[in-house]
Amino acid sequence: MLSRFFLPVTRMPVTLKEFSEKYLGYRKKCPIIFFCRNNGYAISTPTSEQYGGDGIAGKGAGYGLHTIRVDGNDVFAVYNATKAARKLAVENKPVLIEAMTYRLGHHSTSDDSSFYRYVLHDIFYDLQCRKRVLKAFNSAEKEEWAHCHDMFKDVYKLVPNNIDSTLHNELVFREMTNRIKLQRDELDVHVREYKEHYPAHRCLLKSTSL
User: Fold this and answer.
1) Following DSSP, what letter does each residue of 28-69 receive, concatenated?
2) Tell me: the pLDDT tens digits for 81-135?
3) Fewer CB within 10 A of the end CB, N or C, for the chain?
4) Would 207 be classed as within a structural domain?
């Protein structure tokens, strides 16, 4: 399974010995993904003394690796980059992903990042992150919600690759089992009892049971 060949690189892998396995991965055509989280800081050596470029993506290409640089603060961008990397890895094409991000916290419990970077930077980014999260929540609140009954149907629209198609009907349940119907009915009772916390009128699908 590919999950066994996913190698997260938490330290900045730019020295000769730390980068040797990338070259080995290329030479042996290993189905492996090297994931580097580049937050621009290190607990030992600053990036300005580690490499002359703006990251390690160039070094990955130099070693013959398929290389992807992505915004490490963008969840969807990281997801899509990893998904694309996996498609290459299953074809025995090693991939390096460099996620450019910013570390809000300390490197470890024994680290005090205020010694090597401005505290005001952390405060600024922390406030910006909170503003963006609140803005995203406020935007999402304006959208209509899916009906809670959707949790009890359409479990699989497509049969997963690791599941025998003959078992598909048993997994999806053409008709809900008594146990699932009971769970749905219990949910309806809960929603009616605490309806002030569940604005059902905003759901995409209406239901008389609610």
Assistant:
1) TT---EEEEEE-S--SSS-GGGT-SSSSSHHHHHHTT-EEEE
2) 999 999 999 998 889 999 998 887 787 888 888 887 777 877 888 888 889 889 9
3) N
4) no
Query: Do 139 and 153 sit in the same domain of this protein?
Result: no
CA distances from 133 to 65, 66, 72, 75, 205 (A): 35, 33, 16, 12, 27
Range of the domain at 28: 2-103
Q: Is residue 108 part of a domain?
A: no
Quote the number of domains for the chain.
3
Q: Please report, as a single letter, which amino acid is at residue 161.
A: N
- 61 with 91, same domain: the answer is yes
Q: Is there a domain that residue 208 lies in?
A: no
Which helix (H) or strand (E) covers residue 120, if one does?
helix 119-141
Highest mean pLDDT out of 20-34, 162-176, 186-200:
186-200
Please report whether residue 38 resides in a domain.
yes
Instruction: Evaluate the CA torsion angle 103, 108, 109, 111 in order and state its sign.
Output: negative
Per the rule left: phi > 0, alpha: psi between -120 and 50, beta: everything else, 64 is left
Angle ∠(77,79,84) on CA atoms, nearest 5: 95
Report the alpha-carbon distance of residue 69 to residue 58 in Å, rounded. 10
pLDDT score for 80: 94
